[in-house]
Prior knowledge:
Blueprint: H1 3-31, E1 34-40, H2 44-58, E2 61-67, H3 69-77, E3 84-86, H4 91-97, E4 108-113, E5 115-119, E6 141-144, H5 150-161, H6 165-168, E7 172-175, H7 178-186, E8 192-196, H8 197-203, E9 208-211, E10 220-226, H9 234-243, H10 246-253
Amino acid sequence: xxxxxxxxxxxxxxxxxxxxxxxxxxxxxxxxxxxxxxxxxxxxxxxxxxxxxxxxxxxxxxxxxxxxxxxxxxxxxxxxxxxxxxxxxxxxxxxxxxxxxxxxxxxxxxxxxxxxxxxxxxxxxxxxxxxxxxxxxxxxxxxxxxxxxxxxxxxxxxxxxxxxxxxxxxxxxxxxxxxxxxxxxxxxxxxxxxxxxxxxxxxxxxxxxxxxxxxxxxxxxxxxxxxxxxxxxxxxxxxxxxxxxxxxxxxxxxxxxxxx
Length: 260
């Protein structure tokens, strides 16, 4: 066999291997039973409860990656092998939907969050909203970083609506996610914290909350979207159907979310 013929056969063999690898990738994804889900930090406790139910019913394993919506979005854009993204807002899933990272037509609102003010500082308990924000007993007010955290952006909207943002800016402590705001408030590191209602209902054993009128901030609509990595995973699509089911939506109401 001549050297040229051998080279040609080797090249054809290499091309055929690449072809079958490319053709085989979807088959491998379709048969995969594990799911990798990115979840905004405010939804971590609910997703862990839903995770157990789904795993039992569908004979699969779910791995959760949690953090601020902005940080998770950055991971997805940079190629993190995630199948589903449960954001704390609508904007980031919309961006993914119109990029190669998200699957068009799979995005929907799975819950709407509620923003509260929370404190364990007893000196503030008799104050009313919004006067409590101006108390002399306040040194530190916690909000999620508005650039990355949807609940932090909502908190900023509230302060701007009340014309207090500039006045209170020196007291603001920016956290990497809304869970961190609750924890710091709970242990007294903050005098006030803008937290999600779900965190208060799930974790609180002390403290006081103040309701914030919805007119002061845009509704915190939280969207989910199927990602490119999960496109061929039937379990991923089953999870989206599970998340949108009436049974799941009723459960989420108990965690402080609006699902209607």
